[in-house]
Amino acid sequence: MKKSLFAACFSAAGLFAPAYAADSLQDAVKTANAQGHAVKSITPIFSQLVMFSIPAGFQLGSEHTQGNQYLREMVLEGETLDRWTQMITITGFQGLGANPNVTPQGFAAMLAGRFKNACPTTFAAKEVANLTISGQPAFIAWISCGTAPGSDHSESAIIFSIKGANDYYTLQWAEREAPSGQPLTFDDAKWKERIARLNPVKICPIVPGEQAPYPSCVDQK
Predict the structure, then answer these.
(1) What is the pTM of this model?
(2) What is the structure's pLDDT at 33?
(3) What is the tens place of the pLDDT at every residue in 141-159?
(4) Residue 212's CB: how many other CB atoms inside 10 A?
């Protein structure tokens, strides 16, 4: 099963190195991995810059924009998009943030509903946090399938849902483990540690003429 359940739903903290744009990120990640530390990623995605930390050990798998959707997937070194145990995914949905009827919690609930449809007997989810990111409303949820459909593994993910000024963004860290005939149990310590490793998460205005490493976003409080 190539795609994570998360991607299929859309049909499609230690030391830090400097921040990098997507076009130079591959080399930065390789260097950071060799040194055993994380790297800050800052990428223009539609109308804003999106920043988060790529933990040591991850490599770029794919990145593309199709219409009004952006998707980047990262897997552990030595793994591929076809065979992976952990995947970090960032998405953007152009224009969705301008819809007053879409909330971060509602967007996460939509994702949870699609997971539940995929594995109704082994589905489990948990609300983790309501928060603000760079002054914008955000929500963090954990969503899981004890057995992913058509597979021999479970799949669970911690998901940030972030309402931008004009667009919506998600950031998720997914994991595949042995299948379970029962709903999975939320491991509070593990998933909160992973949230910490993805931080700092920010969304920033695009400053005309500013180039990578986007100091205005790096310095944003």
Answers:
(1) 0.88
(2) 62
(3) 999 999 998 889 999 999 9
(4) 18
pLDDT tens digits along 6-15: 665 554 322 2
* Tokens 């007997």 sit on residue: 121
Confidence at residue 36, expressed as pLDDT on a 0 to 100 scale:
65
Q: Provide the β-strand partners of residue 49.
A: 44, 204
- Burial level of 80, CB count in 10 A (0-12/13-18/19+)? exposed
Q: Is 208 exposed, middle or buried (0-12, 13-18, 19+ CB in 10 A)?
A: exposed
Task: Count Cα neighbours of 69 within 13 Å in the Cβ-side half-sphere.
Answer: 9
Please count the residues of the chain. Answer: 221
Residue 136 has a CB neighbour count (10 Å cut-off) of 17
* Residue type, position 65, single letter: T
